[in-house]
Amino acid sequence: MLPSFSASSYDFTEYVPAKNFIGGQWRDPSGAEEQPVLNPRHGKAMASVRFSNAGDIDAAVQAAKTAVSEWAGLPLRERAQILYKARELMLRDLEELSWLVSHENGKLYDEARAEVLKGIECVEYGCSLPNIASGNELEVSRGVTCRLEYAPLGVVAGITPFNFPFMVPLWMIPQALVGGNAFILKPSEQVPLSALKLVEIFREAGLPDGVLQVVQGGREAVEALCDHPGIAALAFVGSTRVAKLVYGRACATGKRALCLGGAKNHLVIVPDADPEVTIENVVASFTGCAGQRCMAASVLMAVGDVDHLIDGIRERAARMVVGQDIGPINLAQSVERIETYIAQAEQLGAKVILDGRGKKATDGGYWVGPTLIDGVTPEVPAGTEEIFGPVLSIMRVPNLEAALQIENANPYGNASSIYTTSGDVAAKIMGHVEAGMCGVNVGVPVPREPFGFGGWNDSKFGHGNITGWDGYRFWTRQRKITTKWALQKDQTWMS
Predict the structure, then answer these.
(1) Mind giving me the DSSP string for 37-101?
(2) 294 classed as catalytic
(3) 212: which of 84, 295, 422, 426 is 20 to 30 A away, CA to CA?
(4) Which one is catalytic: 122, 127, 259, 294?
């Protein structure tokens, strides 16, 4: 059993080294590389993680193969019962899980708590699958019926990012387990600790050994998961560059793959937008989780005379206190990258109207305050490349057509929103924008269950969404059964 994570505040708290969980046992990874697990608020190590090698991945696959047959043989409803119990345990441990996420990731406690609750919502959708995953049956000819079943794939795997260490694994695990698969989780090496608690919860809920496992590591572990012939499907969430590489490598071995990448999300504001709704919502969108989420606002398309809204956004963001209203950035290198984008925009003629550089809540942590850059053009990297920080680039455009042209020229297609009180304006943007998740007066248009999460274009490689019903279908395969018991006098092409 893991010890409880004892933190109940932002005070620095150490935790145990991150290990692999294979075949129901905690094991030290076999690789030589080891790195600290940093608390971004304090900038020092709260734990450590050693990396797995291909041998560790193979050990996890073999343990999963041993377990999956019996697990898949259980009725779907019995598999889902484990999720009911896991949900109860997650609610029981809500405070501990929230503080653990906050410490290893850096996000504010309220943001971490919201992440855990969203993960629990994903588990609740998994609990509902026995009621919606029954296959159809139809008499297609006299005495002949066709029936549809969803069969498990076997051993499957998921690779998850640093920014949502508890929630993103639960985009995958519930549907995969209820579908009858054994699941191998490879969390980000930056935030490996939430995964430890996650597997302990499922173990306490009664999940058999080998059905859910964790392997720590970096590139070698990812490549071994892509290459291993015993893994039938793989999902990934991370940057577009890596998502494209993982998708290509996994598919080359015959795996089913779904890989979510980065984003450059555009918000469009027009003069008739409601200031009370727009100002607070835009600020929350680009500063929430310190901008380190793929649904964060990144570009503000200012259509026409909207200076009153931009002034309100700047004033509201300027009142935010780092460490209290906005959390730290994950790494020192990320702070350097973000500040480079800001400086480069200035050099290319844009104006920083709110500067978050140099803001600090602690001496050792990694911080960037809310930043607004006005007068950004499509030629400025801050306006086209993913920054992954609390930076909003403002592009001035004369009309909706110009806004759509800039938005749709961007290679990403994750999210886009419009702020307006006009249904006609909203319909025009929603009907033509190149994005898979869209909002009207909603700056972070994350679909709630059962609606699936997934973008378009370079924000996703593979088919379907990673959550909701698409998620269940991704981790299963259809079996069609045609049955005839009685001899009929007439004949069809089915004899």
Answers:
(1) EEETTTTEEEEEEEPP-HHHHHHHHHHHHHHHHHHHTS-HHHHHHHHHHHHHHHHHTHHHHHHHH
(2) yes
(3) 295
(4) 294
